[in-house]
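thread: overnight batch results

M.L. [08:02]
morning all. the overnight job finished for the chain we discussed friday. pasting input first so we're all looking at the same thing
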Amino acid sequence: MRILIVEDELALQQQLADSLRDQGYVVDTASDGEEGLYFAKEYPIDMAIVDLGLPKMDGVELIRRARQDGISYPILILTARNRWQEKVEGLEAGGDDYLTKPFHPEELLARIKVQLRRSVGLADNSLVCGPVKIDTSSKQVFLNDEAITITAYEYRLLSYLMMHTGKVLSKRELVDHIYEEDDDRDSNTIEVFIRRLRTKLDPSGELKPIETQRGRGYRFRIPRTSSDAA
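M.L. [08:03]
and the structure it wrote out:
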């Protein structure tokens, strides 16, 4: 999943980015409202964290414009403790939740997980498609309740495919969601990761969980278990 951080306090911005990357998220950062709005509109973001006290364009205006442009992914507001009016304005502009500075990193991570779960219709930390299960909290993958070992990139790819089960996802979209902007973004590596995942998830060749749509991309074909959908 790809998260945008819009925060002008560079030390905090870096701290948040490092913390989220340690959790396996792809992270983009912006230091003012205008840059943040550009990222929010032009990049394939899954969630944004927006400080309200931004230069060039404040966070409330950024959120308002993003919603006006049809952006629907979750937006978490960061605000100073003594500015309760800003919280109200930010929520009314289209923010989904807020966190007051200073805060504990664990609380931020918990709120991010809640918003991301809601955005894809998960009731808890389990993402289940037939015999394949992901615990999004521990980032463990199970096949028929047996844990399997996958790499960080394989996890990012598999979780994104399963969160959008039934939808054809292009190589470009998959690359954008598993790589940082400055990484070596060779789309041919997607084929390698898909091949590895097929081997690990379908050693007998009977399940066929990932389908190739020639010229279009890939689709996770096993529907999500109904009890895990919100």
